[in-house]
Amino acid sequence: MTDTAPYPIGTPGTPWGAREVEAWRATQAAQRRYGQDVEPRILALADRFTLQEYGTLDYAGERFTLYALSNGPIDASLPTALVTGGVHGYETSGVMGALEFLETRAADYAGRVNLLVAPCVSPWAYERVNRWNYDAIDPNRNFTADSPAGECRALVALVAAQEVPFLLHIDLHETTDSDEEEFRPALAARDGQDYDPDTIPDGFYLVDDADNRQPAFCEAIIEAVEKVTHIAPADPQGNIIGSPVVQKGVIEYPQGKYGMCAAITGARFTTTTEVYPDSPSATPEECNAAQVAAVCAALDYALSA
């Protein structure tokens, strides 16, 4: 048992029920607007990419259209790659990095790869600057066809509808100070478990798939991103967020077992990026640029493999 103060919602040691979820939801006021920050940039790209509305979320009358952009009709002679951002809505550079990639670099891959980009998978959480969706569900542990999270079901269906094998999927995330200040304590409270504090790594890192390791692929991404921002070192125990560092800037999870977004395509090359926007030596622009560099390095490596 830790000596940290109990989370303000729920009873320590008891998983949340509907009352606690409702109490949590009541604390989640919108802090920014998907319809102002994200949707206009997506719609502005419709003259350069094929725009797809792949679902709608309706949370107590708040409706959010889910968008993806592709670089034209699928060419079966080309490999296919998926880029996702905003699975966790609070992870801003995941959304902004995906948009910046579309605006500045995606055209470089015309005729080389079928690109599919979903810039903001979780718009309700984007507005609340939260990790969970409306129902206090973490989308990045629930990517299945019958998921309890509508965000996940919609994206899984979009991928299935492509009817082509995927070569690559890169999922853009952040690790922030709020992970320790809010989200991990909330998770422990929701599940009726003890909260064990950890440290937040200062820098960029990747999460490889423990069941489909691609060390050279990850190395290529780390080398490219290191030109833009610093790479997170291991802590004194040799870990990053409690997981052993398996190579410079890389940890691994069994992505499919954990229901992670990066597992939904079954691609040969998959990874999750993690940028640290709260670093005193990083700016929002640098974080967005790191995401773009990671996407481009991932594509370049996969297309040359």
Features:
305 residues; alpha/beta; Aminopeptidase; 8-stranded mixed β-sheet; two-stranded antiparallel ribbon; 32% helix; 19% strand
How would you describe the overall organization of this protein?
The protein has helices spanning 18-26, 34-37, 39-44, 92-104, 123-128, 150-162, 177-190, 215-225, 284-304, and strands at residues 50-59, 62-70, 80-85, 114-118, 168-174, 205-209, 239-240, 243-244, 250-253, 269-275. The protein has nine helices and ten strands. Helix 4 (92-104) crosses helix 9 (284-304) and helix 8 (215-225) runs antiparallel to helix 9 (284-304). It has one domain (18-304): Aminopeptidase, CATH 3.40.630.10. The strands form two sheets. An eight-stranded mixed beta sheet has the order 1-2-4-3-5-10-6-9, with helices on both faces. By secondary structure, the chain is of the alpha/beta class. The mean pLDDT is 97. The radius of gyration is 19 Å and the shape is globular.
Helices, strands, pairings?
Elements: H1 18-26, H2 34-37, H3 39-44, E1 50-59, E2 62-70, E3 80-85, H4 92-104, E4 114-118, H5 123-128, H6 150-162, E5 168-174, H7 177-190, E6 205-209, H8 215-225, E7 239-240, E8 243-244, E9 250-253, E10 269-275, H9 284-304
Parallel strand pairs: 3-4, 3-5, 5-10, 6-9
Antiparallel strand pairs: 1-2, 2-4, 6-10, 7-8
Helix pairs in contact: 4-9, 8-9
Family: Belongs to the peptidase M14 family.
Protein name: M14 family metallocarboxypeptidase
Domain Peptidase M14: 30-305
